[in-house]
Amino acid sequence: MITGIITTLNESRNIEACVYSLQRVCDEVIVTDSCSTDNTVELAEKAGARVFVHPYIGDGPQKNLPLEHAKNDWVLSIDADERLSDELVAIIQQLDLEHTPYDGFAIRRRNYIGERWVKCCRWYPDYLVRLFRKDKLRFAELKQHAFVPTTNTCELKADLIHYRYKNYDQLFSKPERNYSTRGAKILFLKGKKANAFSPFFHGFSAFFVNYFLRGGIFGGTDGYVLSKAIAHNSFLKYAKLLEYQRDPSVRDAEDWDSVW
Q1: pTM exceeds 0.90, yes or no
Q2: Separation between Cα atoms, residue 43 and residue 41, nearest integer Å
Q3: Is 195 exposed, middle or buried (0-12, 13-18, 19+ CB in 10 A)?
């Protein structure tokens, strides 16, 4: 038996399909909602999930919250914009979780922009541990981009479908709105320093690595745009860090009790 877990914030567009996807292999689905202002909670409950509402405390800590409520030893964690492929469902159904020597399983994530499967820039195969024993493994207590350690895990040769961005506009606007500010605030709270060259250095490095070393150059327009978006996010993160350092008015306007 497996408990599916999802963390949400204003995911009314995705939540029902996500719950139904997990129910293909899970006898229990738990949603931890971060105080959504839309009808995410109502739709999740209607789809058959148990819902707990908790203010957002960061990626890793938030995803670990439902582990205490799960009735099963094994949990399968996915995001609201992710779906189980037919191949993944078949493989999970064949697993003997009661007698397996592994504490977790890493799953390939197939990332999409719109309806386009993007394979360059390390977007595929993007292995992440998502199926694991809750008494053996859990998400790292990271505020951003948390992950489950790969200790005593095995890779499953099937895909978790991730509808990562709806279009190019979201590819640029979402990191700018969320990730770069979060990243800058985390760096600032850790005491990291930036100088006038830091944004340019990190932005250029991110583009070079993703476009030339990670195959963006072979990904056509999607590869180029993705490399540019990653570089843009990196540039902004260090530009904002520099701004926090040198402009007290900007720094004082931020809520430092939460980086979110």
Answers
A1: yes
A2: 6
A3: exposed
